[in-house]
Design goal:
The protein has 6 domains: 1-31; 90-258, no CATH class; 265-344, Immunoglobulin-like; 348-428, Immunoglobulin-like; 433-511, Sandwich (Immunoglobulin-like); 515-602, Sandwich (Immunoglobulin-like). The chain contains 8 helices and 48 strands. Strands 40, 41, 42, 43, 44, 45, 46, 47 and 48 form a 9-stranded mixed beta sheet that branches. Strands 1-2-3-10-5 form a 5-stranded antiparallel beta sheet. The termini are far apart. Residues 1-28, 139-145 and 187-200 have low confidence and may be disordered.
């Protein structure tokens, strides 16, 4: 009974395994696990661990050497944790780099890097220890520009956005055995025929590792492990002519770790030339459908506006700069995009005058201006249209302050990109004006010269002492003409042109027409003495004064008048006037007053 049950159980188990391995789903998995499909799945963003788990019976050799993240061969996969590392391909292999080049005056103890290890997973720390010891300034080198092995990893990380390292001895052995020479054959890997000149190796070349040889009979630490083309780790003592001194030149292959999950990849950026504030669309693989962060070349980060698993839209921040970008999702980052993003530089005003007058030329200093003058414009507060400068360089713009400018900030627009506002406001100083005379009669034309007048008549106004105002009769940007109004008083005047007020002018003496108030007597005959009271008689006493008699607006006669005081004249009734009613006016130096309101009667009242 028990044997029968056992036999039935085993038969059922075997049948289940058979059906599982021959089910349509499994057949589909098998078709996705060919070498070609594995590469296609990697290209579509799947992780090596996902492929390994989904392909029963897959060999690691089917995954090793396949390109991941676009162009990097997979060198190692931890099948339990799912992480591993990739390596650079032959296109970025460095030939002839030293582990370090020591100054002649330095002994071997000075280049000791304690703490390096040989195990897989330690290359990152090893590389950090080496760079921390030797630095990136060249202080340990005969030539400060010379690049040592671990520094190549540092520089390549900056170039690609990955965290590249110089592999440990075990990691480098894995790279050789899994990627460089998985078949373990010499072939083309040994360019020189015949036996290898290196004891313990059949190869003619080797690769540096980040693992220092910490046991040295002389007590110095001037040697490091290398790995030959067959994957053999060569320590000190096993190589005679295959010298492992740190100053020896060997090949370099770098490593970069990956995690078990999918890593975002950037395939394109559109558009690839933008201004700050504009949107770009980044497309690729393994994006977060809800939120992504884009890191620009200078480290500035932007969050996505919208996202799918294959694209994300970002607004370019004001402080972002041109270069390659990379995408970050939940602590997983892509490499830098192969495509560079060109961000047209933002013009910046660093200094300019704090005050200026209309039509005055000022110099605006800054950076990122176009040297082509036509590509630059300047905006002023109160002026709707931008102004084209007089001249431009990349760091300086000369421009004329336009009419209508009011106190406010200034901006530069260069290649269509608006700068941040100027550090200070531009204050408009009053217009300078001057008059063509110091004395003028009312209702005569006064000429005012200055700078920054509007050439629109209606945007100019002249204000006289006493509150009288007048609109000019003719205008240009540096000249106004205006008729002096009757209400204007002697004193200063000023102009307001397009909202900008001028300084006060020099004092202007305004001579008004005489105005007859009354006269006595109201009637009389020829030769009779008249006393006339009037305003505005305070003029040059030496000039001639006349009293003119009008009948029906026709002059009928005149008589010389004598000056008594500033309000009184005396004259006589002219000879030959026919009896009748007459109005009078006063003429001083050929300048006549208005006719009197009341009338003087010649002859009898019945006439």
């Amino acid at each position: 009974m028990n044997n029968s049950l056992t036999s039935n159980f085993l038969y059922g188990l075997l049948l289940s395994l058979f059906l599982l391995n021959h089910s349509p789903i499994n057949a589909q998995n098998a078709s996705n696990c060919t070498d070609e499909n594995i590469q296609n799945r990697l290209d579509e963003g799947e992780s090596p661990f996902e492929i390994f788990q989904s392909c029963p019976g897959i060999q690691l050799s089917q995954i090793y050497g396949k390109y991941y993240l676009g162009k990097y061969p997979i060198a190692y996969l931890d099948t339990l944790k799912g992480n591993g590392f990739i390596t650079t391909d032959s296109r970025v292999t460095k030939i002839g780099a030293s582990w370090v080049t020591v100054k002649a005056s330095m002994d071997s103890a000075s280049i000791n890097v304690p703490g390096t290890s040989s195990a897989i997973g330690t290359g990152v720390l090893n590389t950090a220890l080496i760079i921390a010891k030797y630095g990136i300034t060249g202080s340990y080198f005969q030539d400060s520009t010379y690049s040592y092995a671990a520094l190549l990893a540092y520089n390549y990380s900056k170039e690609t956005g990955g965290n590249w390292f110089l592999p440990s001895s075990d990691e480098m052995a894995a790279i050789v055995q899994n990627v460089i020479n998985p078949s373990g054959q010499m072939g083309a890997l040994c360019p020189r025929p015949g036996p290898s000149p290196f004891t313990g190796s059949q190869c003619n070349f080797a690769y540096w590792t980040s693992t220092q040889q910490n046991i040295n009979p002389s007590g110095y630490f001037n040697k490091a492990y290398i790995v030959d083309c067959m994957g053999n780790i060569i320590p000190d003592g096993e190589a005679t002519t295959f010298e492992t001194n740190k100053s020896s030149p060997y090949l370099i292959r770098l490593g970069c770790n990956f995690s078990s999950g999918r890593i975002p990849q950037i395939t394109s950026i559109s558009p690839d030339t933008v201004r700050t504030g504009e949107n770009i669309t980044v497309t690729g693989l393994n994006f977060n459908p809800y939120d992504n962060a884009l890191i620009f070349a200078n480290g500035v980060v932007a969050r996505s506006i919208s996202s799918t698993t294959t694209s994300a839209v970002f607004s370019v921040p004001d402080n972002a700069r041109s270069g390659q970008v990379k995408l970050t999702i939940s602590k997983k980052s892509s490499f830098y995009s192969e495509q560079s993003l060109t961000i047209l530089p933002v013009p910046e005003i660093t200094s300019m005058p704090s005050t200026g007058m209309i039509n005055q030329n000022i110099i605006i200093s800054g950076k990122n201006f176009s040297s082509n003058n036509d590509d630059n414009q300047v905006t002023f507060s109160g002026v709707s249209m931008p102004v084209t400068p007089i001249s431009s360089t990349e760091n300086s713009i000369t421009v004329t302050i336009p009419l209508g400018t009011k106190e406010g900030f200034v901006h530069v627009i260069s290649n269509g990109i608006r700068s941040t506002r100027s550090l200070n406001k531009l204050q408009i100083t009053p217009l300078n004006i001057s008059l063509n005379t110091t004395s003028i009669r009312e209702n005569r034309t006064l000429t005012i010269t200055g700078n920054g007048f509007s050439d629109n008549i209606n945007e100019n106004k002249v204000y006289f002492t006493g509150g009288a105002e007048a609109t000019p009769s003719t205008v240009s940007t540096n000249r106004l003409t205006v008729t002096v109004p009757k209400e204007a008083k002697s004193g200063t005047l000023y102009v307001i042109s397009n909202g900008v007020q001028s300084i006060n002018s020099a004092p202007l003496d305004i001579i008004h027409r005489p105005e007859i108030s009354y006269f006595t007597p109201q009637s009389g005959s020829s030769g009779e003495l008249l006393t006339i009271t009037a305003n505005n008689l305070e003029v040059d006493k030496s000039v001639n004064r006349y009293v003119i008699f009008y009948q029906n607006d026709v002059q009928k006669g005149s008589a010389l008048a004598t000056y008594s005081n500033s309000t009184t004249l005396q004259s006589t009734v002219p000879q030959g006037l026919a009896p009748g009613k007459y109005k009078m006016s006063i003429s001083i130096d050929n300048w006549s007053s208005e006719k009197s309101e009341s009338e003087f009667t010649v002859g009898n009242n019945d006439y």
